[in-house]
């Protein structure tokens, strides 16, 4: 590569870098799926289930309390109630058919962080962070939409402003009644989410 080509490449990268830096918040559209609300294979209403019937989030998304992922409930969880109620609904019949055929329901993922982000639902549940903090007022949504940007800035702002987290003897976040006196602020260290 000759000197002139190197200068052109260097200048181009500098101009691109300045452009990106000056964009600030307006450049946040990259990987921002706020408002994304895809049609699902089952017309499921969180407003009816979590809102009107006040079914707790962890009844269906039990894995959120014990693992990184909240997971989608197995169709058999739906049938705990729907084997008795609204059995004739076409949507409930789709669920019953999936259970009878032992086939998973192919839900479309809505909240999807980049692969380089390590997010752990169980830590946030243990710290008593409400699901609505990140997922918005799901109990009012007929079709779930991504409510927040789920950007790094959103997470860091929450970690900076959120209350102190109480730890158990092993250093894991715990609900207050099960905790020791060890406390720390939610970390903003890069390695907490990027490892």
Describe this structure in words.
It is a single chain. This protein is mainly α. It has a domain at 46-72 and 107-193. It is 38% helix and 2% strand. It contains nine helices and two strands. A two-stranded antiparallel ribbon has the order 1-2. Helix 4 packs across helix 5 (90-100). The longest helix is centred in the first third of the chain and has 21 residues, at 3-23. It is extended.
Main features:
195 residues, mainly alpha, two-stranded antiparallel sheet, 9 helices, 2 strands, 38% helix
User: In what order do the strands lie side by side in the largest sheet?
Assistant: 1-2
For the sheet with most strands, the description reads: 2 strands, antiparallel
The low-pLDDT segments are 177-182
User: What is the mean pLDDT?
Assistant: 85
Range of helix content: 25-40%
Shape: extended
Q: Structural class, please?
A: mainly alpha
- Span of the ends, CA to CA: 36 Å
From the alpha carbons, calculate the radius of gyration and give it in angstroms. Answer: 22 Å
* Number of separate strands: 2
Strand content: under 5%
Order of helices and strands: HHHHHHHHEEH
How many helix segments?
9
């Amino acid at each position: 590569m000759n000197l002139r080509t190197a200068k052109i490449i260097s200048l181009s990268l500098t101009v691109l870098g300045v452009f990106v830096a000056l964009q600030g918040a307006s450049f946040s559209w990259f990987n921002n799926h706020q408002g994304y609300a895809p049609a699902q294979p089952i017309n499921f209403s969180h407003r009816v289930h979590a809102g009107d019937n006040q079914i707790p989030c962890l009844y269906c998304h039990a894995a959120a309390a014990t693992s990184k992922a909240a997971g989608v409930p197995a169709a058999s969880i739906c049938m705990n109630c729907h084997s008795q109620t609204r059995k004739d609904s076409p949507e409930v019949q789709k669920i019953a058919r999936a259970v009878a055929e032992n086939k998973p329901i192919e839900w479309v993922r809505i909240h999807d962080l980049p692969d380089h982000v390590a997010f752990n639902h169980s830590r946030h549940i243990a710290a008593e962070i409400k699901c609505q903090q990140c997922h918005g007022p799901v109990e009012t949504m007929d079709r779930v939409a991504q409510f927040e940007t789920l950007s790094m800035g959103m997470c860091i702002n929450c970690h900076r402003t959120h209350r102190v987290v109480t730890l158990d003897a092993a250093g894991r976040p715990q609900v207050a009644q099960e905790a020791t006196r060890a406390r720390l602020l939610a970390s903003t260290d890069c390695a907490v989410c990027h490892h």
